[in-house]
Every structure is written in C-alpha cells, then in structure tokens.
Amino acid sequence: MIEPVEKKKVGDTIEGYRVLKEVGQGAASIIYLVQDPKTKHIWALKHVEKKDPKDQRFLDQAEAEYKIASELNHPSIRKIDRLIKKKANLISTKELFLVMEYVDGISEERQPPRTFTKAVDIFHQVASALAHMHDHGYVHADMKPNNIMVAGEVAKIIDLGQSCKIGTVKERIQGTPDYIAPEQVHRRAITPKTDIYNLGATMYWTFTRRHIPTALAKSDALVGSLEDHLIEKPTPVNELNPRVHPRLAELIMQCVEIDPDKRPESMAVVADRLNLILGILRARAAENPNGATRINDEEQSPPKSGK
Question: Does 198 share its domain with 246?
Fold first, then answer.
C-alpha cells in the first residue's frame, strides 16, 4: 500500500515557495498552487516523496518527466521550470519537487467542449503538441481527457508522467484502461502510433460519451488481456452521434484501429486532417450562424476516468 505524501497547509513554505492551496494528488505525490515570494510568480509545484523502496519508481518517473519536458518547447505542452532534489543520504534521493507552469483551466474530462468547432480546435492543438513530442523522439503514452487542460482558447497537455522514448518496451502495463492501446497492454514497443490510438479513444469519448473496447478485459473485478483478434470493434462514431462530420468520424475510427499499420501514418497527418476539418466546421458556422453546432442536444455528465 502506498503511503500518502505528508500534506502542507496553506501558508506553509516548500523549498522557498508559499503554498496557496492543494490542486491535485497522485499515487505518491501532491500538487500545490504556490507563489514565489520574491517574484510573485504563481507556479504549480509537484511534491513526490519516497517512503518505501517501491516508491523509487515514482521518483524516477518524475525525474524523467522533467528531462523530457526540458527538451520540448510547444505552447500546448506544460513547461517544467525546475527540478529540486532532497537527499536522504549521499547517494539516495528521498523526495523531489517539480516547479511547473500553472495552467488556470479545467480538464477536458471535467468540462467537455460543447461544440464541434471547439472540440476539434482542442484536438488540433493537442495533436500538434504530440507531433512536436514525436519529432523530438518521445511518446506521451497516456493521452486521455483528464490530461488535456483547457484555459480559454488554449489547450495544454499537463502530464508527461508516462512519457518515454519512441520504441520503449515497458516492464509493466502502463496506461489508462479506457484509452489504452493494444500494444501497451501486451507490452510491445510504444510508438507514435500509440499516441494516435490514445488520442483517437479520447476523441471517441468526447463525441459519443462512450469508451471504446480495449485490450484490457474486465470481468467480476478481474482484469485480464485480450489478444488483438478478440478485441471488440467499437461502434462507428456516426451510429452513436449522427451529428459528427463524416470526415471527423472517419479519422477517429482510423485512429483506433487495432493494427497500428492501419492507423494514420503520423500524428502530423492527424493534426493536418483535424485542421482541415476545423476549417470546414468554421466555414459552415459562418454560412449558417444559427445551425446546430452542439455535440449533444443535452449536456451529459461525463463518466469517471477509468484510472
């Protein structure tokens, strides 16, 4: 059992930063909204603490997150400004802190976009950011609605915790069950096609409010895995929501193909197609300002994340 990180109170100081409030929690971490007393700048500060030898993977993961973020520079990827380590002894790190860009927004899971134009705009930004990652040799490997923060007109990927080099074969199954790609479940190489699948599953949920069947089989609280040929094909997007533009529906279904070779060639291609669809939707809206552009007639409460 993972012991929770000791919480700080509002007004406490962490590594020179003043705590304003707690904004999130992870398996072995807490994220605070903090302020630098000298500059008055606001940051998000992630505190990861090792209380057990098994927690070492969380420290390693946070350090890798910082390394990857430091090699990226895209407006739709949250920046990480500093990594602060605290040693338990000369060779062992006890805890670390990530000083991250604070994104004042709401996750796409908590507040899904209401219109097609807004949704496609968000996904175009995300796809462009993921293409940037791929160009620099990395895969996100955990794209899902909860990892997309929307602040006004800007969408940002806020979590690189599962990110890795292209071609990595992970020892453990990592990913979020409702969005996980078959190659992640079967511990095959993680590639840009994995992000395409994860993003496709995210778009599928956004436009249908349903999750696609994945290679993780759930039955009576037992979780197993399905071979590729046994994975149920998702219901076509247009059957669940006829409002979805045919080109968008086609793209989503291609992204969630079981066979990576059948998915779009690259994330750059996905971004280009989303940009084209966005242009079509904007032109349609300009021609018919009163036309139906809402994704659903009635807003539905989103289901809880699968993780």
Answer: yes
